[in-house]
């Protein structure tokens, strides 16, 4: 099974690279290397070093992008050369994509003012999802509660 994305690069087609790309393409939100490893291990035996090497090779060729989230972890996603808006729960890591883009006029102004050709942007909002809010009625004891501790 050949992957069309890899065919556009100098990378060798391997089952492991193809699987990592497939996992990222099907993921509803960016994933950590550990999450990718967990999903991949259901199909192919793969070490963490193999996952990291493959992700770095794919990132070097702009096939995937890397972003450090507020939790300090590195997340990977297929590079779409567009933009993404995400709402992420700081407790359970649930991630919801936001379809609307309130930044289109800002992007247009930035292009006009700077002569940059903007190829994309990411916007991340962090909060506590309704499920985590309701499951933790004693949330004031939580060190992660921004409402109570900021």
TrEMBL record:
GO biological process: negative regulation of DNA-templated transcription; regulation of secondary metabolite biosynthetic process
Binding site for Zn(2+): 89, 92, 129, 132
GO function term, MF aspect, one: transcription cis-regulatory region binding
Gene3D superfamilies: 3.30.1490.190, Winged helix-like DNA-binding domain superfamily/Winged helix DNA-binding domain
Binding site for Fe cation: 104, 121
Cofactor descriptive note: Binds 1 Mn(2+) or Fe(2+) ion per subunit.
Coiled coil (residue ranges): none
Superkingdom: Bacteria
InterPro entries on file: FUR, Fur_C, WH-like_DNA-bd_sf, WH_DNA-bd_sf
Cofactors demanded by this protein: Mn(2+); Fe(2+); Zn(2+)
Entry protein name: Transcriptional repressor
Species of provenance: Candidatus Galacturonatibacter soehngenii
